[in-house]
Amino acid sequence: MGTQTCNESEGNHEQKQVKPTASRNSLIAWLKDLMPKRWEMVVIVLTIAPMAGFTIMNPYQQTLRAKLDCGALCVGSMTSVSSALGLFGSPLVGALSDHLGRRFALALGALASALSMVILAFASSLFWLWLSVIPGALLAHNFTIAKAVVADLVAPGERAGVLGKLGLAAGFGFMVGPLVHPFVHTHMQAAATATVLNLVAFLAVFQLPSKASGSPSADAGKKTPWESVFFTVYDSVKEVFVLAFAAPACARVILFLRFGLSMGFHIFFTLLTTLLKERFHFQPKDYSNYFAFIGLMYAISQLLSRSIINRFDKDQTKLVVFCVLLLGGGRYVTAQTHTPAVLYSALSLTVMALGIVNTSISATVTRISSSNNVGGLMGVLDTSEKLAGVIGPSIGGALYAYHPFSPVVVVVAVYSLLAAMVFYLYPLYVVPATDQEKEDKEKKE
Fold it and tell me: Which of the residue ranges 121-135, 287-301, 323-337 would you say has the lowest mean pLDDT?
């Protein structure tokens, strides 16, 4: 017995020694997976550069708009035009990448972003300010093409990890502006810095492996890029209206919710831009801190969203209603306050609520859709957001021109209607659909 006990204790001691070694090996393996490969570093640079350029230049762009008397209606119209160009530009660049290769599309996007910055650097009138919108909005869609590069080079089971690195890179790019701001003091310096970053991205494109050239699809030889763009945009917009009227009720509820949230955001954003400029007298440093704060709050919302959403399980009704009402209340407080501390407090709540409700919607979509059509539904929701980006800013600018407080009234009304819709229709259509999806999965298993 004594010998057996001794042997058992020795065995237990050996197991205790093995565990730290196993844990250490797991940590090393995790760190190796986290470290990007060379081509991943290139794609990360292509992701960070345009985001960083935007956050460096945007504060000075706001000052330039004020100098050129570009008011709420002007800003709203400019944002709508940018969104409309993006609606056509994204499939255009995608088609070009299929026909002429990923490298060509990425290089074109980097040069387009650089050209927009150069035009902004020398813009001395509203004409040049409008002209600066075109190259970037139409041709700079490198984040989308970067995802296509990942699909070309990474096995399906490993794509989620690489795409996660791109998401972190995009978040870091959004934080570059405040970091660089102490070294950038003028509009011209900001434009030059942003231009150089995009030219670095242009050079980095040629470091991608040749396999990332993109392979022509079966229809590539049958359609020109322009034909592909036309049919892609037409089919995407058509799917939104088809889903709005012919899809199952649960999908229609989600569609109207996402479209309404996007409309509320874009209508209010036009007003917010004016408030920051005229009421709080934001300077470039203030805009940099503002963007950094927004990025930080959204990142926190993503860290918290998983645990919060899991608490409500399949019935997200109360969570979504609370978030939508919080958005409406936060927008109202933001429009009313004259105190920076209250402004940032309201912004923190609205950004957190927006991040959580967006994640909740995405999780719900995966529950009400089968694996065969979840991508299609996600794509339709994305198109509906782009349509809201085309319509909403112009409506916001027109409302502000009619009366400065009218955008707030409309936005609060929109959020109130959305909350009422979710409260009554989520339990009626969406929750039962998640139950049915769960039953279908159990039957398959």
Answer: 287-301
What does the DSSP 8-state code read for residue 427?
I
- The average confidence (pLDDT) of the chain is 79
The answer to whether the CB of 279 falls within 8 A of the CB of 404 is: no
Q: Around 317, how many Cα atoms within 13 Å sit in the side-chain half-sphere?
A: 16
Residue 358's nearest CA partner among 254, 432, 435 is 254
Residue 350 · residue 299 · CB < 8 Å: no
Is there a contact between 400 and 72 (Cβ–Cβ < 8 Å)? yes
Question: Mind listing the pLDDT tens digit for each residue in 214-228?
Answer: 544 444 455 555 666
The pTM for the full model equals 0.71
Burial of 173 (0-12, 13-18, 19+ CB in 10 A): buried
| Structural domains in the chain plus CATH codes | 37-209 (1.20.1250.20), 235-438 (1.20.1250.20)
Sort residue 36 into left (φ over 0), alpha (ψ -120 to 50) or beta: beta
Burial of 415 from C-beta contacts in 10 A (0-12 / 13-18 / 19+): buried
Task: Give the separation between CA 105 and CA 95, rounded to whole angstroms.
Answer: 9
Burial of 127 (0-12, 13-18, 19+ CB in 10 A): exposed
Which run of H or of E encompasses 22?
helix 2-34
pLDDT band at 94 (very low <50, low <70, confident <90, very high): confident
Q: pLDDT tens-digit profile of 34-53?
A: 455 677 788 888 888 888 88
Looking at 154-217, list the stretches that DSSP marks H as alpha helix, in order from N- to C-terminal side.
Answer: 159-180, 187-205
* 8 Å CB contact between 59 and 284: yes
